[in-house]
Structures are given as structure tokens and as C-alpha cells.
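Below is how a single chain appears once it has passed through the pipeline. First comes the sequence as given, then the structure the pipeline wrote out for it. We keep one example in the README because the format questions we get most often are answered faster by looking than by reading.
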Amino acid sequence: MKLFRCACGQIIFFESKVCTNCSRRLAFLPETGVLSALDPTETEGAFKALHPSANGALYRLCQNELEHGVCSWGVAASDEDRLCFSCRLNETIPNLSKPDAMKAWGQLEVAKRRMLYTLLDLGLPVESHLMKPEGGLRFAFMESGKNKKVFTGQANGLITINLDEAKDPERERIRQEMGEAYRTLVGHFRHEIGHFYWDQLIQNTPRLEPFHKLFGDETFAYQQALDRHYKEGPPADWPANFVSAYATLHPWEDWAETWAHYLHMIDTLDTARSYGLVVAQQPIDGPPEPSISIPHTDFGKFDSLIISFLPLTLALNSLDRSMGHPDSYPFVLSDPALEKLRFVHDVVSEVRAPANAPADAPRQNDAQPSPALN
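Resulting structure:
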């Protein structure tokens, strides 16, 4: 995630809504991929975006921010839709009359927007259900009840997230029960969007054959694989071939876990580069290895990404341990896992659109019905 600067020069962050120095309102502008300071205009509700890339364009705050305080993205003043690009992807939102629902929704939105930022920055196509009725992207944030059980997953473009995942104690309980080393909200979004892009970029394409060589045959009965996984657990030697234990369940899950790890890698390196980090490995014996300057990493080359990412995660985990926290990146990437990551990188490189040009960017007359309540 890049660092941004307000018009006053203050450093501002992706989730920031107000500059702590000059008190200007801030909004992320998906058309240009920047977080911009806003100045009010004579037109009620309209702001002038001050970032140079916005060229003085006028924006409004998303209606979900005005009504609920859960959004940090802007809407072009010429757009007839009252919701931003991110919020108009919502099909179902939590029932806000329930306790803690607003807080949970806000946390879900933060994770979703961080995931969307990476997709747009990579130039991946992001087509909504409005643009592509069959298989277009949409989200449902739902809570389990007495007579229904909500499962986090993806089906035909609909990504459903169980509201419990936004509750830290509940998510931690599930993580421990499942024996997982890592379970986060942004991780869920990155995993489920991996399933979405398998449908979009792998299924029924020439990429399916190379996918089979690396990940296996996805026609193997999923429910049978699921039952076996939860009855027997992952094979003991899973770290030798997979990025995670859950990836062993089925080729679809292997792809989604690998895709999620690729997004972890891209966002982490993007953040490190914004801070100008330099990682120097100091072996016990022998001369120090050359320092790795993240700003000089070639993000278009997979080998360059890996050379930068692996020592960065070692340093990151060491810092976590120094603070008494568990490892932020509790994974070891084997050679087969790296080859799968390379495949993901190659797919992304092949299909990426011009930077910051989402297929379904906000535009005039792109109206969408208000999301349903769970």
C-alpha cells in the first residue's frame, strides 16, 4: 500500500478520512488510484480534488460515508450514483439495527477496499454484476442465525463473508479450532477473489492446461475432497508442495490460497517500497549479503519480487517476535509453491489492463439498486 501526502504536505494513509494537520477531508479516487485532499466548493456537497493527478475534478463523498461513516472513497460529481465504486459492489449489507453490526461492516469495508486497491493497481479487470450480470463481482456480508448458517465463499461472482469474521474474538476462536497459523479479514477477501479470478481467467481458457500441471484436476469432486480434508487433515508433508495446509484440500483451494499469497506479497512490497525500506541479511558466517532496496525492486519480474519478499518477511517476523507477537507471515515457500506463485504472476501480467483503469470504474448513469440488508 502506497503512502500518500495531503495538499499541506502531511503524510496520509489509505484509510485516512481527515488530515491530522490541516483538517481537510480526504477521499480515495479510484479513477486515478490516489488519496486526495478535498476543498469545498460553492456547490453543496461537491469538493475539488487537490491531488495533481485529479486535474481539479469535482467529487462527492460516498453516501455510505455520509449516512454511516463506513467509506473513505470519493464519487465523481458527474456520477449519478450516490455510492462509490467499492460500495456499489455490495449486494447485501449487515442489518444495522443489530448491536455491533456497524462496527463489523466498517471493518469488512476496510479489508474489501484494501483488496480492491491492489486489484486496480495491478490493472486487473473488476467487472460488477451490473456490467456482467452472469458472473460479475458482488459482495454479501451476512450473519448466521438460528435457522441458517452463513458460509464464507464465492459462487458465480458473489463473494459472501460471514459477519463473525469481522469480530476479532470469534475469528481467533475459529483460527485456533481450525489449527490455522493465519486468519485475517483481508486474507479472506484475497482468498475469495482468487476463486472469482479462477472463473474469469483460468476456466475455459488456454491457461487451464498449465493450471492442471501445477495445481491438479479441479474436476475432482469438491465435497468429497472437503469431507476428506476435515476428517483426515492435510498430508504431513504439505509444506513441501503447498503455500498452506488448506491449499491441500482441492486444486481450487490451492489456486485461491496461492492467489491470496501473491496479493499479500504485492501489498507488502508496495508498502515497504513506500517507506524506502532496505533489507540487509547478515549471515552468522561469511561476509554480509548485498542489501536489498525495495524501491529498486522490479515489480514486473517475479524473480525480483521473490528476492525482495523473502528477506523482508524474515525481518518482519523477527520484529514481531521482538514485540512478543506471533509471526505476521507464518509460511515457508517451497520450490513447488514458488512455481505456482510464478504462474499467478504470469497470469496477472498477461491480463492486466492499463494501470488504474478498472473495467467498471464509476461513471455517469452507472446506477445500481441499494444493497439489501442481512
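The first strand starts at residue 4 and ends at 5.

See the next section for the split statistics.
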